[in-house]
Design a protein that fits this description.
Elements: H1 2-39, H2 43-46, H3 60-67, H4 71-103, H5 107-118, H6 122-135, H7 142-166, H8 170-178, H9 183-194, H10 196-212, H11 215-220, H12 228-233, E1 236-237, E2 240-241, H13 243-263, H14 265-274
Antiparallel strand pairs: 1-2
Helix pairs in contact: 1-13, 3-13, 4-7, 4-10, 5-7, 7-10, 8-9, 10-13, 10-14
């Protein structure tokens, strides 16, 4: 009887967990579905309350992004800044994390500095950065945005890669060096392939941070260097909300990060758990 009772409790626990999971998925997906459907409606249909669930899809909102606004330029700005920030963070972050992992460079002080940099509030430094870039004649440039993003993304990359590299046995490198590899060759040919899931996870997180960032992009960019998040906010005007264009621009902002995360989803899952157990 006790065994039957335990099985019943286990069954109900499973059903409850599944129900909670389904509710959580709906909470996450329903707003996204609403934004997608609204982006495919005409301007009149987008403002209708209650919203129409059956309608003829149209791409006029996406066409407006290209014809009425310089949205391709904003996309290029976001893509360029995000890719450069991610590439610099991965390349130099890998060497920094390797040095800290194998040679204990910087000790606890450097690890503490990285933690502080990761948790620094953007609002606390946005004004000093604004004044600094004005003095350097870098205000309203992509360079200013890349430098600013590296302030936050680089410590994040080092912190994540450090945990990944510490989970890789040092004996593998030593064996490679015994076979004739230099330290750099052992890093490139042995360590980095083993850390590829961690590199993929780190690159996704760095890219998403740079792609979605709004505050610094709003303050440090101008008309020709705006990024997509800033462009999306411009559809909230004094005359009202351009809901169709807003939803279309939001989908343009969301889709690249979703596609990238889906493309490397296996690496992302294994990478995020790679450094959890040593």
């Amino acid at each position: 009887m006790r065994a039957i009772g335990n099985r019943q409790r286990s069954k109900w626990s499973y059903v409850l967990a599944e129900a909670v999971l389904i509710i959580a998925i709906l909470v996450v997906l329903l707003p996204l579905v609403w934004v997608l459907l609204t982006s495919l409606k005409t301007r009149v249909e987008a403002y209708q309350i209650p919203p129409k669930l059956v309608f003829k899809p149209t791409l006029e909102n996406y066409r407006a992004l290209v014809e009425k606004y310089p949205f391709p330029l904003y996309m290029w700005n976001s893509l360029l800044v995000s890719l450069i920030t991610t590439a610099i963070s991965l390349i130099f972050g890998s060497f920094a994390a390797y040095s800290m992992s194998r040679f204990k460079t910087g000790g606890k002080f450097l690890k503490g500095w990285i933690l502080n940099a990761r948790t620094m509030l953007p609002m606390a430094i946005v004004l000093p950065f604004f004044m600094m870039f004005q003095k350097l004649n870098l205000h309203q440039t992509r360079t200013a945005l890349v430098i600013t993003y590296l302030t936050f993304v680089f410590p994040l990359a080092v912190s994540l890669l450090l945990s990944f590299l510490e989970s890789i046995p040092v004996e593998l490198e030593e064996a490679a060096m015994v076979d004739g590899c230099t330290r750099l060759q052992a890093l490139v040919r042995v360590v980095m392939p083993l850390a590829s899931p961690g590199l993929a996870a780190t690159s996704i997180l760095c890219f998403i941070f740079s792609w979605n960032e709004f505050l610094f992009a709003l303050v440090l960019t101008g008309r020709g260097t705006r990024t997509v998040p800033v462009a999306v906010s411009n559809f909230l005007t004094n005359q009202g909300v351009l809901i169709g264009e807003l939803c279309a621009a939001s989908m343009v902002l969301i889709i690249p990060a979703m596609v990238l995360a889906f493309a490397v989803r296996n690496y992302l899952v294994s990478g995020l758990t790679m450094g959890a157990v040593k």
